[in-house]
Amino acid sequence: MASIPSVRSLSKLALGGAQVLLGGGQGVLGSTPVTCSSPQLSCHNTTVVSNLCCFNAPGGQLLQTQFWDTDPVTGPTDSWTIHGLWPDHCDGTYDASCDSSRAYTNISAILKSFGATTLLSDMGTYWKDYQGNDETFWQHEWGKHGTCISTLEPSCYTNHKATEEVVDFFQKTVDLFKALPSYTWLAAAGITPSTTTTYTTSQIQSALSAKRSGVTVTLGCSSSALNEIWYHYDVRGSVQSGEFVPANPDGTKSTCPSTGIKYLPKSGSGGGGGGTTTVPTSGTPAPTGTPFSGKGYLNVNSGGSQKGCIISAGTWYTSGTCASFTATVSGSGFTLTSSKGKCGVVSGVLTCGSSVSTATAFTNSDSKLAAGGNAAWSADSVASGSTQVSVYAGTEKSNALEIVWQSI
């Protein structure tokens, strides 16, 4: 490969403090040359780098891009989906379709031939085409973008096996996507899909910057509705095994307005969905059936009166539609599930969804929800309006709560 005579200032891009060393999944298959012992960070070289197996160029900034498709609904209702992994030049431009000889049209077969069945399953869940043509979509992303990543060239492998770089491209993209849970990060900041509530660019950027050490992202909107997020990285070393360092966007690309951004729900998603408010307004309800059995609401009592309820992600909410929960007997207690999935106490926080690996066995204490035998819960602040608040097990936070069952 030829050298890239690129000289770029170290101040070209602002680096985030967080660094991503991706793992999990089935791992990459190739081994880059041993000369990658002291790789430079892409987009930050001040002299020519000749070994493009250890340095991504000219596509030095890697973008992990995600979709939020609501019409038609594409992918899980509580997750964004993958668009791709794109190598941009460090000035906002990019190459495309760099090697027609490797524009493969049998992506699934390639992955299966290397035993990457878990990867293929993940792609079938999260790397979706809105028209249902997943295989064609994957072919397009590899041919247009994957073939332009210098460190994925076959010559960059020791004892290269034909097409193994394809597996590395898709595995790395999926691993990176899993490290960027956009839905969860936005929800943690009270930004949830809604047909009525709108958000500002500043709110969305702040929610995501809080998880990535202050760097920003590129936001994409269609008719003022948020539908795409691009996360930018510079890479120290190869895409296969290098260090992904969060970076600011390599150009002004966002297409969202500063205010009035809609974040529309996917069909069937819960939380902040607008519509008719069904939050009960009376005091602590008298259960109409056996406490914590069948379906019910989790109403929140705070300061001696009822104030809203727990919604499907496990957060406290005082506006919109209460989520219904299903209580299922488990040993001497019960488990809870919502439309998001299993519920549990994760790092001290009441949570429902894919991040809950094992459902918590809750118990009933005078019709109040108890975890670990303790019916006390608390929050940093009082939920109001469209603001959601995380609920913690125990009383260490400043606002004491009770969570009361109401059968439905």
From TrEMBL:
<keyword id="KW-0456">Lyase</keyword>
<keyword id="KW-0732">Signal</keyword>
<feature type="active site">
    <location>
        <position position="141"/>
    </location>
</feature>
<dbReference type="InterPro" id="IPR036430">
    <property type="entry name" value="RNase_T2-like_sf"/>
</dbReference>
<feature type="active site">
    <location>
        <position position="145"/>
    </location>
</feature>
<protein>
    <recommendedName>
        <fullName>Ribonuclease T2-like</fullName>
        <ecNumber>4.6.1.19</ecNumber>
    </recommendedName>
</protein>
<dbReference type="InterPro" id="IPR033697">
    <property type="entry name" value="Ribonuclease_T2_eukaryotic"/>
</dbReference>
<dbReference type="Pfam" id="PF25488">
    <property type="entry name" value="RNaseT2L_C"/>
</dbReference>
<dbReference type="GO" id="GO:0033897">
    <property type="term" value="F:ribonuclease T2 activity"/>
</dbReference>
<keyword id="KW-0378">Hydrolase</keyword>
<feature type="compositionally biased region" description="Low complexity">
    <location>
        <begin position="277"/>
        <end position="292"/>
    </location>
</feature>
<keyword id="KW-0540">Nuclease</keyword>
<feature type="active site">
    <location>
        <position position="83"/>
    </location>
</feature>
<dbReference type="InterPro" id="IPR033130">
    <property type="entry name" value="RNase_T2_His_AS_2"/>
</dbReference>
<dbReference type="GO" id="GO:0005576">
    <property type="term" value="C:extracellular region"/>
</dbReference>
<dbReference type="Pfam" id="PF00445">
    <property type="entry name" value="Ribonuclease_T2"/>
</dbReference>
<dbReference type="GO" id="GO:0005775">
    <property type="term" value="C:vacuolar lumen"/>
</dbReference>
<keyword id="KW-0255">Endonuclease</keyword>
<keyword id="KW-1015">Disulfide bond</keyword>
<dbReference type="InterPro" id="IPR057328">
    <property type="entry name" value="RNaseT2L_C"/>
</dbReference>
<comment type="similarity">
    <text>Belongs to the RNase T2 family.</text>
</comment>
<feature type="domain" description="RNase T2-like C-terminal">
    <location>
        <begin position="290"/>
        <end position="406"/>
    </location>
</feature>
<keyword id="KW-0325">Glycoprotein</keyword>
<dbReference type="InterPro" id="IPR018188">
    <property type="entry name" value="RNase_T2_His_AS_1"/>
</dbReference>
<feature type="region of interest" description="Disordered">
    <location>
        <begin position="265"/>
        <end position="292"/>
    </location>
</feature>
<dbReference type="GO" id="GO:0016787">
    <property type="term" value="F:hydrolase activity"/>
</dbReference>
<keyword id="KW-0926">Vacuole</keyword>
<dbReference type="InterPro" id="IPR001568">
    <property type="entry name" value="RNase_T2-like"/>
</dbReference>
<keyword id="KW-0963">Cytoplasm</keyword>
<dbReference type="GO" id="GO:0006401">
    <property type="term" value="P:RNA catabolic process"/>
</dbReference>
<dbReference type="GO" id="GO:0003723">
    <property type="term" value="F:RNA binding"/>
</dbReference>
<comment type="function">
    <text>Rnase which modulates cell survival under stress conditions. Released from the vacuole to the cytoplasm during stress to promote tRNA and rRNA cleavage and to activate separately a downstream pathway that promotes cell death. Involved in cell size, vacuolar morphology and growth at high temperatures and high salt concentration.</text>
</comment>
